[in-house]
Amino acid sequence: MNTILLPVVAALAAAFVPSLALAAEEPNLEALGQVARLIRWSGVLTSLFVVAAAWLGLRFLHETVHRLSRQFASRRLLLQKVATFVQFLTYIGTGLTVIMLSFRINESVLALIGGTIAVSVGFAIKDLVASFIAGIMIMVDRPFQVGDRVSFGGQYGDITAIGLRSVRLQTLDDNTVTIPNNKFLNDITSNGNYGALDMQVVMDFHIGMDQDVGLARELVTEAVVSSRYVFLDKPVVVLVTQVVHEQYVAVRLRAKAYVLDTRYEKAFDSDVNVRVLHAFRDAKIGPPAILHRHVDAAPQAAAQPRLAPTA
Question: Is CATH 3.30.70.100 what the domain over 199-282 is classified as, yes or no?
Fold first, then answer.
């Protein structure tokens, strides 16, 4: 009996298995067909031209802002802020235009796009979305702006661009540092000028305890106010404090003054230091050193005559 049924079962399996395999593949082909029908192929080609036009427009915008910033230095920060805002609008407008041109918008498309975005946010692009949201928060909350000189994560320099995903910082060593936007939500950022061209610069000078402190303070003040980089519309202060410097007790003179443009911060610091060094040398004001204090010996008591021992 079994020998008779085996050929029959084999024949039925051979007949039905390919049909089942094709039935399993048909829904995939149908889904692909539905997706293909939702795409407007003529609009895809047009979208490529839209993306290319947006790229060329942003490049022209950046070159124009760069030229105008060099020509009108006092308006540099305003021009960079306008360029950043236009860049955000261009990104959003280009994305919406590409979607409208490339897809036939209906309930199916909306459901498909909504499901894709939900899955992407949950799994694939959560960091990118977080950086995008953080970029919007940076634009609204404004902890810093394009052109500000900030310190973040051990990096110090000027903010050159605020994008949808990251912030670019140009260090004083001419290195470009790219920082994701979401990093700024939890870490501390130090902003030196906060939208202004001028910025406070702090410079320390140390002299010995036995030197003329009053004269040294006058020389430091004169060196600061006579620099061509100083911004005299804001006060110049020289603070005097006794500190321990390199294991020496010393007098610290801390000069606080404003540079007229953040780009000249290091030039201002160097100029004042050179002036102070020359002034201290001419006035014979020395650096900190170990001082030896001379202590007079206490007068010795008069020797008492010894009494002869009694028997």
Answer: yes
